[in-house]
């Protein structure tokens, strides 16, 4: 059983990490003094002193790894998140080493180059080992080993979503053995997973001790059973998790408060409501828009000339959109269509082979160059570099009634690019799917997430196959 081997595996991982940390530190000494230099000079501390420092460094770094969740289960953790935790622990360790050695102990003869080389080498070696280990585990799971067997208690939307995700990610090594439910007949299957019987059968299944996990996936109507089920599962010693059937109401990362022991879950947590986060993002927007205007000014000049020569009318087209806190603003674009009389503008998206689009406009739309004037919207504060794309007021009124959580997007500034856009949801694509990506971005915003989206835009986001 997995639960019997997990402790042994975790202890082995700690031992291997200790070996990597110690090896990286001593290896850094030899890289500095025997590869980068001929040999240690006068006044250089002997290697024995660096060996003594391992008494402090190895347990200290293992403690940091534990504190930064490097040893949490890796089945569903993305590789970049695991590497980020390793980087985070090592960065804290570097800062602690500098403070202890040079400010507390005042041992100024410890080579700063060795410390820096150790920092880089330890991150690389630990991350490399984790990547190799991850690939090894996924390989053996694909062959039917190292699997976790899970029983679902309760048939609900949450149970179906859970099964779908497990089947879509076989590398996690999860096997759903079946479902227990009081309302669905035995023998009913969902994507190959069978309903085995009623929830009451749980008390006969648990003593057999053949399960690694119990996932409570009750529907909302059965939540009166939740407390008793948790108590039953905990008595058996089987690891138990709860998957709520109201995931459409709460964010993927719920923000909770502790009111003197009473947990309170906020329905919506928006990191950008924090003043510090707002200031950081605004600084990035101002700096990024100024840089973008300077860099793309030759391109914008050529685009403006082409628009002017292609058809009569203004170079810049401005259109009312809905922005932060539902406030309207005028969004700028290079005009890509024939000039239309006021009031005759078609109240719909541009369609394939739309006769109103000019030849120059087709190129501008396909390459997203028509969006460049929005850098000035960003500088003004109407928009951000990254965020949900803004929509016209008439469509906002329409979608707010048709699509759940549509108005959540207006809790942040609209963006020149966004998480939905870099995932292909641009132009004539599903609004519902687009909102799912927008809400995920809003609830999980970080500066790193913004930078990732900007980089993805450069590689995948400029050519828009859905723009007509």
Query: Residue ranges: pLDDT <50 for 5 or more in a row?
Result: none
Order of helices and strands: HHHHEHEEEHEHEEEHEEHHEHEHHH
**Major sheet: arrangement of strands:** 3-4-2-1-5-6
The oligomeric state of the chains shown is single chain
Beta-strand percent range: 5-15%
Structural class: alpha/beta
Number of E-type strands? 12
State Rg.
28 Å
Mean pLDDT: 84
Helix content: 40-55%
Largest sheet: 6 strands, mixed
How many helices? The count is: 14
Shape: flat
How far from one another are the termini? 56 Å
Walk me through this protein's architecture.
The protein is an alpha/beta fold. Helix content is about 50%, strand content about 10%. It has 14 helices and twelve strands. It has helices spanning about 1-35, 45-65, 80-105, 110-140, 155-170, 200-205, 225-235, 275-310, 360-365, 375-380, 395-400, 420, 430-445, 445-460, and strands at about 150-155, 175-180, 190, 195, 215, 240, 255-260, 260-265, 315-320, 330-335, 385, 415. Strand 7 (about 255-260) and strand 8 form a beta hairpin. Helix 8 (about 275-310) runs antiparallel to helix 9 and helix 8 runs antiparallel to helix 10. The longest helix is centred in the middle third of the chain and has 36 residues, at about 275-310. The chain is flat, with a radius of gyration of 28 Å. The model has no long low-confidence stretch (mean pLDDT about 85).
């Amino acid at each position: 059983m997995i639960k019997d081997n997990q402790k042994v595996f975790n202890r082995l991982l700690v031992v291997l990490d200790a070996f990597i940390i110690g090896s990286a530190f001593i290896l850094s000494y030899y890289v500095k003094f025997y590869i980068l230099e001929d040999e240690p000079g006068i006044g250089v501390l002997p290697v024995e002193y660096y060996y003594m420092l391992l008494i402090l460094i190895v347990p200290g770094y293992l403690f940091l790894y534990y504190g930064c969740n490097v040893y949490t289960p890796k089945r569903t953790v993305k590789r970049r998140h695991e590497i980020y935790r390793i980087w985070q622990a090592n960065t804290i360790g570097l800062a602690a080493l500098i403070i202890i050695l040079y400010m507390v102990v005042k041992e100024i003869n410890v080579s700063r180059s060795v410390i820096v080389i150790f920092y880089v080498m330890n991150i690389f070696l630990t991350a490399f080992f984790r990547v190799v280990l991850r690939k090894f585990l996924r390989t053996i799971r694909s062959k039917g080993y190292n699997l976790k067997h899970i029983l679902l208690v309760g048939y609900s939307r949450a149970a179906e979503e859970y099964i779908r995700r497990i089947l879509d990610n076989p590398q996690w090594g999860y096997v759903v053995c079946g479902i227990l439910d009081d309302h669905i007949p035995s023998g009913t299957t969902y994507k190959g997973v069978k309903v085995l019987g009623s929830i009451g059968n749980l008390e006969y299944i648990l003593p057999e001790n053949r399960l690694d996990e119990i996932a409570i996936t009750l529907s909302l109507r059965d939540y009166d059973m939740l407390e008793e089920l948790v108590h039953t599962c905990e008595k058996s010693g089987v690891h138990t998790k709860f998957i709520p059937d109201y995931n459409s109401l709460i964010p993927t990362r719920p923000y909770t408060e502790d009111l003197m022991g009473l947990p309170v879950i906020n329905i919506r947590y928006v990191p950008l409501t924090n003043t510090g986060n707002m200031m950081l993002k605004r600084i990035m927007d101002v700096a990024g828009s100024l840089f973008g205007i300077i860099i793309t000014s030759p391109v914008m000049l050529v685009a403006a000339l082409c628009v002017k020569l292609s058809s009569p009318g203004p170079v810049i087209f401005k259109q009312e959109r809905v922005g932060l806190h539902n406030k309207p603003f005028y969004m700028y674009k290079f005009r890509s269509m024939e000039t239309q009389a006021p009031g005759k503008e078609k109240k719909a998206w541009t369609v394939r082979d739309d006769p109103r689009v000019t030849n120059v406009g087709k190129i501008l739309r396909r390459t997203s160059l028509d969006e460049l004037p929005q850098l000035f919207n960003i500088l003004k504060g109407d928009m951000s570099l990254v965020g949900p794309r803004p929509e016209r007021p008439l469509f906002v009124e329409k979608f707010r009634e048709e699509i759940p959580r549509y108005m959540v997007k207006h809790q942040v500034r609209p963006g020149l690019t966004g998480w939905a856009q870099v995932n292909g949801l641009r132009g004539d694509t599903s609004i519902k799917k687009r909102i799912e990506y927008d809400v995920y971005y809003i609830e999980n915003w970080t500066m790193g997430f913004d930078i990732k989206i900007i980089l993805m835009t450069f590689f995948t986001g400029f050519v828009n196959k859905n723009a007509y």
